[in-house]
Amino acid sequence: MKSVKSCLKYSWIILLFVIIALCNCQQPVQKQYEPTVSSLDSHPVPEWFNDAKFGIFIHWGVYAVPAFHEWYVEYMSPKSQWGHSPEGPPYTAEQGNLPDSVFRSKIRNGANKYHRGNYGADFEYDEFIPMFKAEKYNPENWAGLFKSAGAQYVVLTAKHGDEFALWPTKYTDRNAMDMGPHRDLAGDLLKEVRSMGMKMGFYHNTTYSFWDKRYPNKEWVDYMNNSIKELVDLYQPDILWGDVPVGPFRNNNGKPLGANHWNSKEVIAYFYNHSENPDQVVTNERWGLDTTASQALSDRSVSNSLWAKQAQRWNTGNGIFLGDFQTPERRNITGIFDSPWETCDALDPTSWGYNKQTPDDAYMTTNELVDYLADIVSKGGNLLINIGPRADGTIPEVMQNRLKGIGLWLSINGEAIYGTRPWKVFGEGPTVSEVGSWGREDGEYGFKSGDVRYTRKGNILFVILLEWPGSEIILKTLQGIDIKNISMLGSDESIRWEQTKDGIDVFLPPNPISLYANVLRFECVNL
């Protein structure tokens, strides 16, 4: 009898192991990405990123104390520990024989004068650290503001060029837990942002530590990459935002320091492989150019990229971009771009970090911000708009007002933004630049009456009137489109229209719904 019971007992144990083994066999094997261009190129861009359209960028750190510019450590007094003399070009210009104008010498010299006048030539950058207290920092309030703005994701500068980390890192004691605020600024914000249903990402400095004596040698590259990997392991960010430009950083022979120098492929593969859901994370393209890969990947070639003009100006040669999406900075593009892209820009035209000298009327207006977003989305991109909080952790009122303003607009018109895709043309009207120009950098900031942008969701075409055209508007591009109904977002009333030889003649209500752009919703047949 005892032997029978023993047999039954062992049978159950064996059966349990079999069940566990079968369950394990049914678990999908997570793909491992290799540090090669071909392997990294197979990483999909998650749909949430293509659908999100609008995010918040935050430049915050010790540089908020002098409150002049985020590159204050690089631009300040020549007698400081890390500053550069205003009479000579910065390190990278010397190495690459590049014009000093590339590095905004006017801003650098202005910061130099500002520092001497307010703090003295002998005042070193790290003396600002005890003054960076973040005593009024409320990450819940920050996240609530971003949510009310309609943002779908947030990117924080976890470590900028001054190499001061906003999390408790083991790789340097120059961090917000050991110095200054004595708090995990990055982790606290991540928790609140995710609790409100938004994605969270981190910017990490990748090439801008000119003051560090180790830079740009292997010792510094290893230190930087270990810091990035730690950030990935601790916080599992949805977005990893690198910042290696395509041209300025060069070796002693004047050759660009590419992706291999920075070990970028290894870092990106680590990010993918150590994320809980590798196919749901995303990284930008600023990791340097890979010049060793096959040029058959023409969609990743710099000559076919949004950086082509800048690469030509900086004489980088050709190469392959890494990452998932491209990031033109403080500029828009002038046509639909098929690959994922995101414009990053700041409400403050002078600085990404908080600049207390910028007057409120110099900031991007809510109307400009709404039009900017609509224009970018009509061309297939996202907008990552930047704010710069103060050193005490408060967000300036002018920045809050701009975010609340676009949030109110999106609460009515978000259907025309989120989850949309470009139509066959991005728009029509007087402000349509020639292909190849750079939009805002070429002086085209405002829009005029008659400027229209299109977005699409299935058989619904959204017609975004950037400026109110008056009692009617003729949409020439829509000639011959089979339309079932036209309405305006924010109103239940149908809009009258006529098909004419010139296009669709739309008769508008006497008054606009929105203070900013107004949106017509076209229900179409087989759009």
From TrEMBL:
Belongs to the glycosyl hydrolase 29 family. SUPFAM superfamilies: (Trans)glycosidases. The keyword Zinc-finger does not apply. The record marks 344 as: May be important for catalysis. It comes from Maribellus comscasis. The keyword Ribonucleoprotein does not apply. It is an enzyme of class 3 (hydrolase). Keywords: Glycosidase, Hydrolase, Signal. Residues 450-514 form the Alpha-L-fucosidase C-terminal domain. It comes from the Bacteria. Residues 24-415 form the Glycoside hydrolase family 29 N-terminal domain. One of its GO terms (molecular function) is alpha-L-fucosidase activity. One of its GO terms (cellular component) is lysosome. Pfam families: Alpha_L_fucos, Fucosidase_C. One of its GO terms (biological process) is fucose metabolic process. Its EC number is 3.2.1.51. This is alpha-L-fucosidase. Alpha-L-fucosidase is responsible for hydrolyzing the alpha-1,6-linked fucose joined to the reducing-end N-acetylglucosamine of the carbohydrate moieties of glycoproteins.
